[in-house]
């Protein structure tokens, strides 16, 4: 049976790959991105998120079978906090009522192996409190201090913790909506291209994300995992961070963390 699925980040990378797979299977995809999408919106700001939700609901007719948040940014500024956490949370919370109206609703987000890396506690705390001004102020201090490399991990750690906190609430589990995350390692997308092109950053990347199983992933690898998470077959998995990272997570954290 054809389904209607909203996917953010469809202009490139994982979101584009997933949208293509879903459409090939006969599903209707409402793509959300800054440009080249069915819904063009800036998820880094509250008004952009509200616009994305309103346009998506209009196109979907008020009912969605699944939502997948793939849109994200990776740099040393406050933008990861804006997009990767507040952009994702705002989109999912705004579209949740439309999911609850579906027969077999599903939701998934894209986390990251970097969520296991060192974070800024003040940024994470403010994110989990839902205090965007405080989170951005804390992130700006981190950026100014020269430790901006912690902001991407902070955004992804916050997202994973938010997902695990809300997934079992009446609004999600109680409404029959599984909510999970795929945490990729290094994926060959436009977002990671600069890392491959810079010799120093390439070395840092390989040390931070060791991938002994088959090396770097194509976006289709992550898209396949997301496709199953939001399929009707997933009836009982919720609150899980699934590492699709070539073995980076067990390499970094060891066998005692599971």
Key terms:
258 residues, alpha/beta, Rossmann fold, 7-stranded parallel sheet, 10 helices, 7 strands, 46% helix, 12% strand, globular
Number of helices: 10
Structural class: alpha/beta
Radius of gyration: 17 Å
Query: Which oligomeric state applies?
Result: single chain
CATH architecture: 3-Layer(aba) Sandwich
Describe what this molecule looks like in 3D.
- It comes from Actinomadura darangshiensis.
- This is SDR family oxidoreductase.
- The chain has 258 residues and is α/β, with parallel strands linked by helices.
- It has a single domain (4-245), classed as NAD(P)-binding Rossmann-like Domain (Rossmann fold, 3-Layer(aba) Sandwich), CATH 3.40.50.720.
- The protein is built from ten helices and seven strands.
- Helix 1 (13-24) links the parallel strand 1 and strand 2.
- It starts with a strand and ends in a 5-residue tail after the last helix.
- The relative contact order is 0.14.
- The mean pLDDT is 97.
């Amino acid at each position: 049976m054809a389904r209607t699925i909203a996917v953010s980040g469809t202009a490139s990378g994982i979101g584009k790959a997933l949208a293509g797979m879903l459409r090939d299977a006969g599903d209707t995809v409402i793509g959300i991105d800054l440009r080249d999408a069915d819904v063009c919106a800036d998820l880094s700001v509250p008004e952009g998120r509200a616009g994305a939700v309103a346009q998506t609901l209009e196109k979907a007719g008020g009912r969605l079978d699944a939502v997948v948040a793939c849109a994200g940014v990776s740099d040393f500024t406050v933008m990861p906090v804006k997009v990767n956490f507040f952009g994702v949370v705002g989109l999912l919370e705004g579209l949740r009522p439309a999911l609850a109206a579906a027969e077999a609703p599903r939701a998934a987000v894209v986390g990251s192996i970097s969520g296991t890396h060192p974070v800024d506690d003040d940024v994470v705390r403010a994110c989990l409190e839902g205090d965007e001004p405080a989170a951005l102020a804390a992130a700006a201090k981190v950026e100014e201090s020269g430790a901006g490399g912690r902001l991407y991990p902070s955004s992804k750690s916050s997202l994973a913790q938010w997902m695990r906190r809300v997934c079992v609430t009446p609004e999600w589990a109680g409404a029959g909506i599984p909510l999970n995350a795929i945490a990729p390692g290094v994926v060959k997308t436009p977002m990671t291209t600069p890392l491959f092109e810079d010799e120093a950053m390439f070395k840092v990347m390989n040390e931070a994300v060791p991938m002994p199983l088959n090396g770097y992933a194509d976006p289709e690898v992550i898209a396949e995992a997301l496709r199953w998470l939001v399929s009707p077959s997933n009836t009982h998995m919720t609150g899980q961070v699934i590492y699709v990272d070539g073995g980076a997570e067990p390499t970094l954290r060891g066998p005692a963390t599971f």
